[in-house]
Write a structure and sequence with these properties.
single chain, mainly alpha, two-stranded antiparallel ribbon, 8 helices, 2 strands, 3% strand, globular
Length: 137
């Protein structure tokens, strides 16, 4: 049996069900541009994101080195833009940690060290984070 035939039907990384699920999660989370891009007043979020790039090394989710994206400020990379958008929603209490994890893994894929990355992301959230950047509604 060839490699494709040995795999259970409907499984694997290119499976239509997984692609559809990832697309639905992406659409649910992506509602608008990240607050860090829309508002220069998002200093708390921007500091949080920079901190993740420093203290969560290596920050790996799926096959992505998110820590490197943060350090390089890889704006324009759809995966990084999605990560920043989802992370701003986590920071501003618009996503629960579990919803955030599902959305990010649904978009970037899963990997062996995801738990370590998410533990660091959640551990570094400020205890009294705001619901929006200063000066926004």
């Amino acid at each position: 049996m060839d490699r494709i035939g040995s795999r259970a039907r409907g499984s694997g990384p290119g499976c239509p069900v997984r692609i559809a699920l990832a697309a639905m999660l992406a659409a649910a989370v992506a509602g608008c541009a990240p607050d860090s891009v829309r508002s220069v007043d998002a200093t708390g979020f921007n500091a949080y994101l920079a901190k993740l790039g420093q203290v969560c090394q290596p920050l790996l989710i799926g096959s992505a080195d998110v820590g490197e994206w943060i350090r390089m400020n890889t704006v324009g990379n759809d995966n990084y833009d999605y990560f920043v958008d989802a992370t701003s929603k986590l920071y501003y209490n618009r996503l629960t940690p579990e919803s955030y994890r599902q959305a990010v893994v649904g978009f970037l894929g899963s990997g062996k060290v995801d738990d370590r990355a998410f533990d660091c992301i959640f551990r570094n959230l400020p205890p009294n984070r705001p619901n929006a950047p200063v000066g926004t509604y």
